[in-house]
Specification:
105 residues, mainly alpha
Length: 105
């Protein structure tokens, strides 16, 4: 359960910053960096040599979300970031459901 928080807390931070902050400044980028590092810690729940493909896809989608968020003020609008947040959330939920279905060995 604790490892699931490593997925949802960063997504909540991203959503709050995206929807409450008009223009990004360096403190917000620091908060995004910390949330990004927290999301990366979610991989600790898998053995290093046995990361499932869905977890790799989740990490890739989150990388795309982070890069898009960095360029939000220049090229994108907050609605596009919300769409990417929604896609990331769906992939995270699929990963968690798939992980829970497998019996522990």
């Amino acid at each position: 359960m604790k490892s699931v928080l490593f997925y949802f807390v960063p997504l909540i931070v991203y959503a709050m910053i995206n929807n409450l902050v008009e223009r990004l400044y360096w403190p917000y980028y620091v908060a995004l960096l910390l949330a990004f590092l927290g999301f990366q810690l979610a991989r600790l729940r898998y053995p290093k040599d046995a990361v499932p493909p869905i977890a790799k896809i989740t990490q890739g989608i989150f990388y795309i979300l982070t890069v898009a968020f960095i360029f939000r003020d220049q090229y994108l609008n907050p609605l596009m970031i919300n769409v990417l947040l929604g896609i990331t959330l769906v992939i995270v939920i699929v990963e968690i459901m798939q992980y829970r279905r497998k019996p522990s060995a």
